[in-house]
Amino acid sequence: MKKILMVLTNASKIDDEHETGLWLSEFAEPYEEFTNQGYGVDVASLKGGKIPLDPNSLEDGDLVEKWKGVTKELDQTLVLSQLNMEEYVGIFLPGGHGTMFDLPDSPELKSALAHFADNDKVIGAVCHGPAGFVGTKLSNGKWLVEGKNMTGFTNEEEQQTGLDSLMPFLLESRLREQGAKFEKSAPWSDYVITDGKFITGQNPQSSQSTAEAFIKALS
Predict the structure, then answer these.
(1) Dihedral angle computed from the Cα positions of residues 206, 211, 217 and 219, in that order, rounded to the nearest 10 degrees
(2) What is the mean pLDDT of the chain?
(3) What does the pLDDT read at residue 31?
(4) Is residue 97 annotated as part of the catalytic site, yes or no?
(5) What is the pLDDT of residue 42?
(6) 128 is known as an active-site residue
(7) Is residue 18 annotated as part of the catalytic site, yes or no?
(8) Cβ pair 56, 63 in contact under 8 A
(9) Which of 3, 68, 174, 183 has the lowest tally of Cβ within 10 angstroms?
(10) What is the spatial distance between Cα 153 and Cα 202, in angstroms, rounded to a whole number?
């Protein structure tokens, strides 16, 4: 069975007043899509163990109930540094504000992403997931996102959350600084960009579409 690696945030706080973590739907919808299409999925994080969930992503009780089976995967995630990247055909980074605080500083994630890019494997991310791309360089010394048509959580959407001043950087701005050809649609609209084997979605509303485009790129 071909396997996909999903890498999640361990960060649970923005500051003392704001809890954060993984945005549930950005994990659950892609996870279900990948497994429904017959792929094995390994769920990892930088530290391993239980993944914090952004409380705001749990407001729809019906969906939380529907995804109970999927959320079991978040109780004991694998440690990224202990995995062999050769085993996977693609890597996918869900979002949530937590990703802004731990993924950009991870040497293990940078190394993993460089492996997928250098070996022409599929790379995907949705919403704040592309925070994991920030600061990642390929073996040729170029930024991972340089020249890539892509999207992610926009500056406008961040401002509308009211959390923009609490972020370590604005995702759209930082990706542009590293050479990304950043594209976007209206705030909170379902929007996905496919650039060869590089698949990105703009926001939580784009999770399902991003997962479908990711599967298409794999096949």
Answers:
(1) -150
(2) 97
(3) 98
(4) no
(5) 98
(6) yes
(7) no
(8) no
(9) 68
(10) 5
